[in-house]
Amino acid sequence: MGFNDQTGDLYIADPYHGLHVVGPTGGKANLLATEAEGVPFKLLNAVDVEPETGVVYFTDASSRFQRREFQSAVQAGDMTGRLMKYDPITKQVTVLLRDLGLANGVAVSKDGSFVLRWRWNFF
């Protein structure tokens, strides 16, 4: 989950149902996206929000395996993870990095000048 301090929106990366947002007054989560470039999300798991623009960065650990198949993804050395961004103004998802090994972490710097992502290394 990632929180937008400016708007009060809470962004949720649901591993089975996609990227959602809950507004500042609470209530039902609204679906924002379930795919990028025609490839459905399989294992969303990390979100952070750029503090100035409100752009949402998130990871999909695998384009092949769902959460319940995590061990299979590890055993297969799955390299289909992606780092993406969602622009709340244009409502578009952009793939920034692909072919990552179980990409499952993202953090935007406090000043928004860089984004860190974490991925597995398979040996």
Keywords:
single chain; 123 residues; mainly beta; four-stranded antiparallel sheet; 1 helix; 12 strands; 6% helix
Describe the structure.
The chain has one helix at 70-76, and strands at residues 2-3, 10-14, 18-22, 30-33, 35-36, 39-40, 44-49, 56-60, 81-87, 92-100, 105-108, 115-118. The longest helix has 7 residues, at 70-76. A hairpin with a 7-residue loop joins β3 (18-22) and β4 (30-33). The N and C termini lie far apart (30 Å). With 123 residues, the protein is mainly beta. The protein has 1 helix and 12 strands. Strands 1-2-3-4 form a 4-stranded antiparallel sheet, with no helix packed on it.
Low-confidence stretches: none
Q: Radius of gyration, rounded?
A: 14 Å
Largest sheet: 4 strands, antiparallel
Strand order of the largest sheet: 1-2-3-4
Order of helices and strands: EEEEEEEEHEEEE
Based on Cα principal axes, name the global outline: globular
List the helices and strands and how they pair.
Blueprint: E1 2-3, E2 10-14, E3 18-22, E4 30-33, E5 35-36, E6 39-40, E7 44-49, E8 56-60, H1 70-76, E9 81-87, E10 92-100, E11 105-108, E12 115-118
Antiparallel strand pairs: 1-2, 2-3, 3-4, 5-6, 7-8, 8-9, 9-10, 11-12
Provide a brief overview of the structure.
This protein is mostly beta strands and about 120 residues long.
